[in-house]
């Protein structure tokens, strides 16, 4: 087994990592990089306000979007165009938009990033528009990038006098490599005294397993679990922090998770975790169906007689009750046996959701029940 190409550690340390990877490859599940991130190595959100021009009559109506009109006036004044009255500004080819982007870690000045453009006013479509120079600021108020360029809209909208059709969302667009980074975030890996690993799903068991794997590779006392989501690593050699991080993220560990059942009641989706267990229960699910049928009959008078034709409704109500029996699901069963037991009862998704909720209420479902 070969180490990651970016691993540039001392020979003794590299050999220790290699032996650990070979010894744990049979039982390990995932790499540390797949379940955790390094503290400080993250994206930063950017946002800006700008104008999209060149729309074919699908922009903001200035009467309903006064901020668009003020933005147009301000832009024209900066470009040397004199003041215009409200009556002179009747354009429908401009839209006010919010521009968002994510500044990746260690992004350097001059590189480009993608931006998302979203309509702020009542524009019906941004198709065919061009974003004018828009500064993008971070949470600290500093400008980190500038966006500009033609936008690409995935959806479309078309309408006539009496009908209209909209596909997708034509008021949200994207510009590939649409922003140029003008400012960098100061962060130097070589200045770190320690490296912190943050688990995406905090768990005490997983944190301790990550700690043990790192200590086995780098030596006892190198890593310490601070809490369920953070493991701090104190390297003995701080001359190559990027190489150390490359070696750490490729170590493999078997993560643990809490027993959980997730239910999406809208779509009827049920996801049951592998560690879910239930107590011994007897389950019966019955159904009561009420059918109401309306028949319309017409009553007419006899020929050459005095009378009126009336409509006489005929209502038929039928009640059907499905015969059901109890099914016993053994306690402390595996996931496969639990699913087989529920399927043996012949239930659909809706009935299964009701049974799982009833099991939780009865204290027989030993797992977290999350309904989304």
From TrEMBL:
Signal peptide positions on this chain: 1-28
UniProt entry tagged with the keyword Signal: yes
Source organism, top-level taxon: Bacteria
Record GO biological process: bacterial-type flagellum-dependent cell motility
Localization per record: Bacterial flagellum basal body
GO cellular component: bacterial-type flagellum basal body, distal rod, P ring; outer membrane-bounded periplasmic space
InterPro entries in UniProt: Flag_FlgI
Annotated keywords: Bacterial flagellum, Cell projection, Cilium, Flagellum, Periplasm, Signal
Keyword Membrane: no
Pfam family, one: FlgI
GO terms assigned for molecular function: structural molecule activity
Main location group: other
Function comment: Assembles around the rod to form the L-ring and probably protects the motor/basal body from shearing forces during rotation.
Subunit field text: The basal body constitutes a major portion of the flagellar organelle and consists of four rings (L,P,S, and M) mounted on a central rod.
Family: Belongs to the FlgI family.
Name of the molecule in the record: Flagellar P-ring protein
